[in-house]
Write the structure tokens for this entry.
Amino acid sequence: MELKVCLLVNYPKHYSNSPEDTLALLYAAQEIAELYEQEQNLEQAIAYYDKAADLFQGEEVTTSANQCKQKIA
């Protein structure tokens, strides 16, 4: 799991501002949260769900933002 998280965390350093890369970045934060949740590391999962929700909200992807917020609740 650590390799996946490392790859996803470092992804933003290598992306451009294309719409595809922006979406990939949004979903990377959510995927990291899901990985931490699977590992029962709830503190990190909550932190990344919160981050993903903020990113989704900033791009006006409301449904995904709300899904992440529900996971935190």
